[in-house]
Amino acid sequence: MHVYEKRRDIVFSVATLLIEGKTIGFVPTMGALHNGHLALVNRAIKENDTVVVSIFVNPTQFNNSEDLVNYPRTLESDVELLSKLSTNIIVFVPTPKEVYGEEMMSKNYDFEGLENEMEGKFRPGHFNGVGTVLKHLFDIVSPTRAYFGEKDFQQLQIVKKLAEIENMSVQIIGCPIFREDNGLALSSRNKRLNKKQLQASPLIYKILKQVKKDFGTKSVLEMNEWVSEQFKNDEILELEYFEIAKISDLKSIKEKQKDTKYRAFIAVFAGKIRLIDNIALN
Ligand code: PAF
Fold first, then answer.
1. What is the best residue among 40, 130, 159, 275 to mutate for testing ligand 1's pocket, by most ligand atoms within 8 Å of CB?
2. Which segments of the chain have a pLDDT < 50?
C-alpha cells in the first residue's frame, strides 16, 4: 500500500497504471472511516485493478465552521484499516494546497436544480464545495469508476450530474446504506454522539421504515404530519426536515403519482450533530 501526500506523486503513479491498461476504482472520503466506507472500498477492489482512497476533509463543503473543526480526524487508524483490505490500495492524503492550489475556492455549479433541494437548502454552498473538490480529485486520480454511499443520496445524484456537466468519463456507482444492527446509518459524525444520543438515534430509521410501510395507504400530508409528531416531545432529537421526494429531480411532493419512484429523506439534530438518512419507498 502506498500513501501519497503530493499531487504529482499520485498523478505519476496513476499515469503508469493507466498506460499498463489497468482500471482504477476511486473512493473519495473525508476519513474517520467506518464499515460503510470499507464496503465501498471492498466493492472497488472487486471491480478494479487498483483502488485509490482519498482522505481529505474538504473545507469548502462545510457551511458550519464548528462542524469543520469538530469533524473527526483519525488518519492513523484509517490507514491501518485500509492496509488490511488489500495491498493494492493507494491512499491519497493531500493538504488543501495540493488539491486546490493557492486559492481554495468553490466553483458555482448549476446542477439543474438538484442543488436547491433538501441539503442544498439547509447547507448553502455545500454542493458547490462537493462538486469542486470532486472535480479536482477526479482530475488528479483519473478513475475508471468512483463509489459513493446512498446515505448521501442527494450527493450521489449530484455527482452523476457533475460527471455529465464536466464531461468526465468516470462511471459513478451508488452503493447501499450500511447500518448498525439497531438501524442507525453509519456516518463519521456518529463518532461524536454521546451515549444518550446514540441510544436515541435508531429512531430515525424506525421512522423511515414505518413511512415505507405506510406509503401505499397514507397520503403524503398524513405521513409528513406523523413524522413531525414523532419528534415533538423528543428531548434528544430535533427534526430539521422530512421530505418525500421524486428520485429523478429530488423535488418534494404533496401527492403521489403513478409510475414515479420516490424516496423519503430526513435530517435530524442530536445536539449539534447533524444526522441524515433516506429510504427507497417504491
Ligand atoms: O461524502 C463525503 O465524504 C464527501 O462529501 C466527499 C464525497 C468525500 C467529498 O468531499
1. 130
2. none
pLDDT digit string, tens, across residues 150-168: 999 999 999 999 999 999 9
Residue 158 CB–ligand 1 contact under 6 Å: no
Which residue has its alpha carbon closest to ligand 1 atom 3? Answer: 29
36 Cβ below 6 A of ligand 1: no
Beta strand 89-92 with 145-149 is: unpaired
Inter-CA distances, 27 with 70, 109, 208, 218, 276, Å: 23, 22, 27, 39, 20
For the entire predicted model, the pTM comes to: 0.97
